Amino acid sequence: MSDRQHFEAGGADYAQFRPTYPPELVAWLASVAPSTDRALDVGCGTGQLATLLVEHFTAVVATDVSGDQIANAAAHPRVTYRVEPAEEPDEPDNSYGLVAAGQAAHWFDLPVFFQAAQRVAVGGGVVALVTYGVVEVPGAPGALIGGFYWDVLRGMWPPERAHVETGYRDIEFPFDQIEMPEMWIERSWTAQEFLGYVSTWSGVKQLRRAGREAELDQFAAALQADAGDALLDVRFPVLGRVGRVGGA
């Protein structure tokens, strides 16, 4: 797995500020899975995907390499959380109808993970790497956000972020492709809520480590001044790679 400094801490902020997925995503994943008895959510963070999967799967095991993320995960009686690398699931062979990763696969050692997913999935099981793409906000606030994302944070993003920007289309995916329907995450956020989300970005964490906190403060002040008390119309495209393993 990639450098853990990007996500090892900050579980409380992830739980508070990261967006959740649309219900139609997990309904669709359940519809293409050969079994809804068990789902495995790897790189689960604080449980944004796991707590939705359990609405369609009898039991969910959710793992993350970060103990801080797991400590802040949303509890559910049918979700079992565990600190564990995505590449090393401590699970029996042929045991999951769905192996999913939400906004996490770009951090994995993908060839190793794909072998592990193939092992634990049932024949014909589904492997889903889901991400939400670059945030979209209309109008002047969107222009400020775009300038901060693409210009101020240039060189601050880890190289793995490029996979998110392509919707994982640049990943060599070894399973039989299932095309995802078009979906969006849509939210109405205050400027302060949006800045809370921005605080979880790996690029922002690197900006702070580089001693450039003042540039973050300037962006925050400009966004708050522009947005005022109005809500921002925020949306993210839901993208990814979904496929079926052999042996059905």
Give the N-to-C terminal Cα separation. Answer: 29 Å
CATH class of the domain at 4-135 and 158-188 and 236-244: Alpha Beta
CATH structural architecture of the domain at 4-135 and 158-188 and 236-244: 3-Layer(aba) Sandwich
**Protein structure class:** alpha/beta
Low-confidence stretches: 1-7
Beta strand count: 8
- Percent helix: 25-40%
Strand content: 15-25%
Number of helices: 10
Global outline: elongated
Give the overall average pLDDT.
94
How large is the radius of gyration?
A: 18 Å
The name of the CATH superfamily of the domain at 4-135 and 158-188 and 236-244 reads Vaccinia Virus protein VP39
Give descriptors for this structure.
eight-stranded mixed sheet; Rossmann fold; elongated; 248 residues; alpha/beta; 8 strands
What does this protein structure show overall?
This protein has a domain of 172 residues: Vaccinia Virus protein VP39 (Rossmann fold, 3-Layer(aba) Sandwich), CATH 3.40.50.150. Helix content is 35%, strand content 23%. Strands 1, 2, 3, 4, 5, 6, 7 and 8 form an 8-stranded mixed β-sheet that branches. Helix 6 packs antiparallel against helix 10. The radius of gyration is 18 Å and the shape is elongated. The two termini are 29 Å apart.
